[in-house]
Amino acid sequence: MTAFIDRWGAMVVDATIATFQMVTISLIFSILIGLPLGVLLVVTRNQVGASRLSYRALNVVINTIRSIPFIILLFALLPFTRFLVGTSMGVKGVIVPLVIFTSPFLARLMESALLEVDRGVIEAYQAMGIKPIAIIWHVMIREAKPSIILGITIAVIGLIGATAMAGLVGAGGLGDVAYRFGHVRYQPEVMYVTIVILVIIIQLIQTLGNTLSEKAKKD
Amino acid sequence: MIELKQVSKTYETKRQAQVLALNDVSLKVKKGEIFGVIGYSGAGKSTLIRCVNHLEKPTSGDVFIEGVNLSEKSKEELRQIRQGLGMIFQGFNLLKTATVYDNIAIPLRLTGLDKETIVKRVNKYLSIVGLKDKKSVFPNQLSGGQKQRVAIARALAHEPKVLLSDEATSALDPGTTDQILDLLLKINAELGITILLITHEMHVIQKICDRVAVMENGEIIEQGNVVDIYTDAKHETTKRFVESIFPSKTPIQIIRDLQNRGPIIDLTFVGEVAESPSLSVLSKKFDIHTNILSGNIVQLKNQPFGRLRAHIEGEEKDTSAAIAYLKEQGVLVSEVTDDDSIY
């Protein structure tokens, strides 16, 4: 046990931190992109004219990106990533593909959360002469908060899964450690430890998500 | 106050078919009155009330609020106008995630009122609807009637001139319905707010409305004072609504039997006449016997209204003298024939 910690401890801790970094940074950007996209999907749905076109276009774009597995997206985006952040390697290099991978997924989750909001409440606020932008924030997003939190929880877990591939561009992380040391160099104990850590993290995140969502429900 | 001029609304459905929800509807709601629109579901009532505050834009025709033509207004101006038109709904439409207090305060804040005014308004209107002690409760902990009270307070807190009610009592039980109707009467009387409501319950019309319009297939088929509609409904649908309050079906066999021994008459009383004992006077004054088949007396908003179906047994000359006497007393009398019996 001590021997294991002495030999691998520092590396596993570093890897955990790297995973957290990647997940947190990509999550923030994904919410900033995904939530507005989700709103856009909902407000342009069942509309006529220009809105209808933008809904269809957005739909196609989201479906296209979501058809590509992350490991392929990662390589396909290499030139774009290099152009955007100057490098395609390391944590910095993996954030761009992670955000592009997660945002459309999150947009879909936000869309379904927002669609649950009672149309009648929105209508009541329209009838009171409230600005559309205020209705989006104070009615739609507010009322959908419990589902939005659950949606973000799902996205975080998906993100953690995707970061396992980050090692391929040298970004490290738990998945990378499990693959390189556990599989390639055949040291199964390293793999088992990272699996246990991942399981614990996922359990904690899901529990946290459920609790926060329940709290936001207020009933 | 509110005027609809030849308003029509067609919806395009997905299969390119057109649905005519409103067909050339015109009506005028006077300042300070309670105007009811009644109709079965699918008659176009909901579309009508949504055209009044332009939640739905009419396909043709104009809506005037205090002389202002809404169709000429920009989106931004419409928003401002809507703040002066309160609306309540069948489904209450409250925020689930906000307390009673916040449900009223949030929309006020979003219309740009200052904090002090908001606190004052919320407290004032919560006490008007009788829910001052529920301020920090969430809607899910309230009964249907209480939720509707919160919705009413929310609408009133904007101090509107008009309150639009979209089937506000349809989801409530009869007792709660009456409480909400009493509250609407109070709001109308004490705050002078004009009310336009839509409903499918004649009870609502009877209890609080001054005037009524009956809708069918997107058209207004009859409108007038509630009393006039009760006493003299012209259209079949209107009659059916009135009769929902007076279930006066008499089996046809009984009618035929009784008719051999004297006429069957429907008596309609309005106002004070409804309270006088016309029938018993009748049997004392004339050589006849009266037999009541069915009857009911209800309270309209401003006066009692009664309807009685009775059989008068006696010689022809006595019965016609008796009927003439009733007419003199201000009672509306109509003789029942076989075909009238089946409503």
How would you portray this structure in words?
The complex is a heterodimer of chains A (219) and B (343). By secondary structure, chain A is mainly alpha-helical. Chain A has one domain: MetI-like fold (Orthogonal Bundle). Helix content of chain A is 84%, strand content 0%. Chain A has helices at 2-44, 50-67, 70-76, 78-85, 90-115, 119-127, 132-163, 174-184, 188-217. In chain A, helix 6 packs antiparallel against helix 7 (132-163) and helix 8 runs antiparallel to helix 9. Chain A starts with a helix and ends with a helix. The model of chain A has no long low-confidence stretch (mean pLDDT 90). Chain B is of the alpha/beta class. Chain B has 2 domains: 2-243, Rossmann fold (3-Layer(aba) Sandwich), CATH 3.40.50.300; 246-341, ACT domain (Alpha-Beta Plaits, 2-Layer Sandwich). Chain B is built from 12 helices and 14 strands. Chain B has helices spanning 45-52, 75-82, 100-110, 115-128, 144-156, 174-191, 202-208, 226-231, 236-245, 252-259, 278-285, 316-328; strands spanning 2-12, 18-29, 34-39, 60-65, 68-69, 85-89, 162-166, 194-199, 211-216, 219-225, 264-270, 289-299, 304-313, 332-335. In chain B, the strands form 3 sheets. Chain B has a 6-stranded mixed beta sheet, with helices on both faces. In chain B, strands 2-1-4-5 form a 4-stranded antiparallel beta sheet. A 4-stranded antiparallel beta sheet of chain B has the order 12-13-11-14. In chain B, a hairpin with a 2-residue loop joins strand 4 (60-65) and strand 5 (68-69). In chain B, helix 3 (100-110) packs parallel to helix 5 (144-156) and helix 5 runs parallel beside helix 6. Chain B is elongated and about 80 Å long.
Quickly list its features.
heterodimer, A: 219 residues, mainly alpha, MetI-like fold, 9 helices, B: 343 residues, alpha/beta, Rossmann fold, Alpha-Beta Plaits, 2 domains, 4-stranded antiparallel β-sheet, 29% strand
